[in-house]
Design a protein that fits this description.
By secondary structure, the chain is mainly beta. The chain is built from one helix and 32 strands. It is globular. The two termini are 35 Å apart. Bound molecules: beta-D-fructofuranose (FRU). Beta-D-fructofuranose binds next to strand 1, strand 5 and strand 9.
Length: 496
């Protein structure tokens, strides 16, 4: 949600009916993303509370269960065993007298610092903003930070009796992201304050918080994230990464009290369809996986509105002499969706030819390595949407176009490397092994479900091309989901 929408809060119509049910079965609707998460019904925006515990990944999400428009914010909940196939569960947090439920995060309280553990299972803790004044019941209440706990692996959630855990600090402060800082044995919360200001707070027990530092990050607002990562190409070096809702990020060091930014970079992703990204907490093997709201997509006449990005695996690398860069690629778990690929080597594409004629479908994972040759442009047309690489002779970079978006990308060894994840209503394009990501939403062109590969202004040479048709993540089981609380299976294998 952008800031303009806040002015609409007062006029929140809570019970606008959802569009008449389409006759298509749930999850098979015309514009339903087939391997990206979207809610069964109603609106979603930010991913919230991404966390892993005992074999299950939890995705909470800003949700309006009553309308396909933003409002009545509730935390929806979906669970997965691979971050790819999701099953929507009962809503986790409903609006209350303190406000509607705005964005936040989740952690596993491994050391029972809050003292709220009941049995064997660790307490899962959600941090959310109670947005006072955004509903008739919460008129006059401020925006505060609250927590809710689960003692049954995320099946049921109980709001903490001592809420709020952080009183209102300023205006519409919101979107707490909590992380454990092992060296100082305390929790760190980064919180959006207002304008382009954020706070860092610390706590020994998740319940009492102290504001330690404020930072100002020009042109950035809302939904911070904060995490430590190894620098992949510098053995033994780890850095702290702070990200804002628009994807701009800072890389620096953190001593448990103060964050010292060393590098500020441009967003990792190009374009408007990637917002409020968050990374999973408590992933095994030091993994860092991020999901975002693919804001701004259109889904006409659908019973749902908006979708999440595919999960991206993040890597941090030293970049040039004095910088660091995040790289992002789809998580390898996507392999489970792949059908048998078609492969080409040293394929020449002449203007007017389409070597992919006859390939039908709308879900693809495409890997292409293209030599900057005689052609001025090489491109794919997928469901009527165009992704192309354009370059000039002797240029050291090319221009990557994804629909109306265009970004400069450096040529690597005179080559262009592109990966495309094509779903029914989104196209995520990754260049040079994740150096740049262009996520876009689109509406497929009627009657053009196939694949085209084309060259403009001369013959192009594809050093390699590999195309995997992808399967849908929605199964009969998820389609039949009623949103009722499920019976949880015993934890499978993965124990922490
Ligand atoms: C970002 C945001 C958050 C807020 C939430 C409300 O999209 O505006 O700052 O918590 O959406 O839905």
């Amino acid at each position: 949600m952008n800031r303009r929408q806040f002015s609409l809060l007062a006029s929140l119509a809570l019970a606008r009916p959802l569009p008449a049910q389409t006759t298509q079965p749930a999850y098979a609707e015309k514009y339903r993303p087939q391997f990206h998460f979207s809610p069964r019904k109603g609106w979603t925006n930010d991913p919230n509370g991404l966390v892993f515990y005992r074999g299950r990944y939890h995705l909470f999400f800003q949700h309006n269960p009553l309308d396909v428009k933003w409002g009545n914010m509730t935390w929806g909940h979906a669970v997965s065993t691979d971050m790819v196939h999701w099953k929507q569960e009962a809503n986790a947090l409903e609006p209350d007298r303190m406000g509607t439920m705005f964005s936040g995060s989740a952690v596993v309280d491994w050391n029972n610092t809050a003292g709220l553990q009941k049995g064997e299972d660790k307490t899962l803790v959600l941090f959310y903003t109670a947005a006072g004044g955004t509903s008739p019941e919460s008129q006059g209440q401020p925006y505060t930070q609250c927590m809710a706990c689960s003692n049954d692996r995320g099946r049921t959630w109980i709001k903490f009796a001592g809420n709020p855990v952080v009183p209102n600090l300023v205006g519409h402060n919101r979107d707490p992201k909590v992380v454990w800082h092992a060296p100082s044995r305390q929790w760190i919360m980064t919180l959006f304050l207002d304008g382009s200001t954020y706070g860092f707070l610390t706590s020994p027990d998740l319940k009492k918080w102290t504001l330690q530092q404020k930072i100002s990050v020009p042109k950035v607002g809302e939904c911070p994230d904060f995490f430590e990562m190894p620098v992949e190409n510098e053995a033994g070096v780890r850095k702290w990464v702070w990200t804002g809702a628009n994807g701009s990020y800072l890389v620096g060091s953190f001593d448990g009290r103060r964050f010292q930014a060393e590098v500020m970079t441009q967003p990792l992703s190009y374009g408007a369809n990637y917002y409020a990204a968050q990374t999973f907490s408590d992933l095994p093997q030091d993994r860092r996986v991020q999901m975002a709201w693919m804001s701004g997509g259109r889904y006409p006449d659908m019973p749902f509105n908006q979708q999440m990005s595919f999960p991206y695996e993040l890597k941090l690398r030293r970049y040039g002499y004095d910088s660091y860069r995040l790289f992002a690629l789809p998580i390898t778990e996507i392999d489970s969706l792949r059908a048998a690929p078609r492969r080409w080597k040293d394929q020449v594409v002449k203007p007017g030819e389409n070597p992919l004629a006859g390939m039908q479908g709308d879900l693809w994972d495409i890997h292409a390595e293209i030599e900057a040759g005689q052609a001025q442009e090489v491109g794919f047309r997928i469901s009527g949407w165009t992704v192309t690489a354009r370059w000039k002779e002797n240029a050291r970079e090319y221009s990557l176009q994804n629909g109306p978006l265009s970004a400069p990308v450096p040529l690597r060894d005179g080559r262009i490397k592109i990966r495309i994840l094509a779903d029914r209503t989104s196209m995520e394009v990754f260049a040079n092994d994740g150096e740049l990501v262009m996520p876009t939403c689109f509406l497929p062109e009627e009657g053009r479900p196939g694949l085209e590969l084309f060259a403009v202004g001369g013959a192009a040479r594809l050093l390699s091309l590999e195309i995997f048709p992808l399967k849908s993540i929605w199964t009969t089981a998820s389609a039949n989901s009623t949103g009722a609380i499920p019976t949880f299976l015993p934890p499978q294998g993965l124990k922490r």
